[in-house]
Amino acid sequence: MERLDEVGTLCDLTHMPSVETSLVIDASADAIWKVLTDFASYDAWNPVVKKARGRASVGADLDFVLQIGPIKAPIAARVVEADGRELRWEGPRVRALSPIARGSHYFRLEALDETRTRLVHGEDFGGPVFALPWKVLGPQLEKSYAALNRALAREVERRDR
Question: Could you tell me which of 125, 127, 118, 121 has the C-alpha nearest to residue 146?
Fold first, then answer.
């Protein structure tokens, strides 16, 4: 199915957009996991996910404010993976909104050795809300997620001192 986006180009609604970023961090996967799952500390270091409340356990509710540039959006998600190497949450929890807009946000930790880990951070999106403005939203999300990665690395290194 194809539709016109706001600049008049075709976008394919059968292939929903995604963003994936990565960064090698000079720390163990365990050290990164501790910071990544410490939601209460996100306000101190995280430029994208603010006011996070919840637990990093499968089935737990996670509430936060997503800040992408000047836009702030309250998010109600559910943790679907939390095994020490991958943290993934999906939202919205309100099922009525899922056909319109949904996301599966993930962080994967790939140990390169005992002191270096590749962080793979991204999100898979679904629903027509994301398909139409993707040419504007996609690059902004990628930039914001990369900034989150760098902030996470700084926070892990700060705590490791």
Answer: 121
